[in-house]
Amino acid sequence: MSREPQVNNLIYSNAGGSLELRQELAEYLKIARSVQCDADQIIITEGTHQAIDLVSRTLSDIGDEVWIEDPAYWGARNILRINGVNLRSLPVDQEGIIPDLHPKKPPKLIFVTPSHQYPLGSHLSLERRKQLIALARQHNSWIVEDDYDSEFRFSGQPYPSLQGLEPDSPVIYMGTFSKTIYPALRIGYLVVPKQLFSSLRIVASELYRGGHLIDQQTLAEFIREGHYEAHIRRMRLLYGKRHAFLIDLIRRHLGEDFLHEYNTAAGLHLILKLPSSSDDVLIASKALELGIKVRALSQYYTKHYSTRQKGLLLGFACVSEQEILVAFGILLKCLREHGIRTLT
Fold this sequence. Notes:
CATH architecture of the largest domain: 3-Layer(aba) Sandwich
Oligomer: single chain
Order of helices and strands: HEHEHEEEHEEEHHHEHEEH
């Protein structure tokens, strides 16, 4: 980067982000995720939360019906509630979200995590993908595809994006560098249908006063020179080893029944399944007191949802195998203290 940057890189951005980064992203996403797009369909955001806020504010009104998975990422649910939409939570099974094919009130937006459902881990089947796209076309809805960690699949090829399944699909594709690089980078992006780009860009400029163009151009250079793809390959190998190590610990010390049936060879966390009588919120709280941060699965469900499962989300990406071993031992002790039998 130059020691004398151009003035255009030091002022507010109203163009949807750095053109260089948008161009590099368009090429990368075509190859890596089968996303159909050009640079003029990409809007750079400061992460997923801002992207969700932008889409919901621009494309929905207070009281509009918005569908979301259940369980789902609490951050997305909170932003949508703040923006005043009427949330309808739809259950998830091994094929992903179960859509209502004959809704009394059609949704304005449908938020999904099709490649690796968060937090359960299931993959949206081809049949369900086609159903969602057909439903969105029928009711003039928009599907928002959160593709938050699709790069990290440890066996086989990554599942292609929902956005690229059909030409001119009613899908807004959302991605982030928080998982692939680091969260404090604060760079995410939206890939939007061409007819939405202008309105979303203008709203983004008015709401957020875009900037950070030097950071974005640095990232563009990182991608262009091949460092990003090389980084992804290295991290995929590293995270795959940690994933396998943690699964082996669960099998040896707790048994197969504690592995959630939707756990796949992908993602940056595992679900430790607990008996339905367990208080996973209390267990997570006690573990935190002992220095182990896990999240209670039941808290990802809506309060009115009667069949919420009990479990713990175990993140492993930033933890070495030795640290995983120590932390898992402390967690086992915590489970025993709450009446859960272990094998060792």
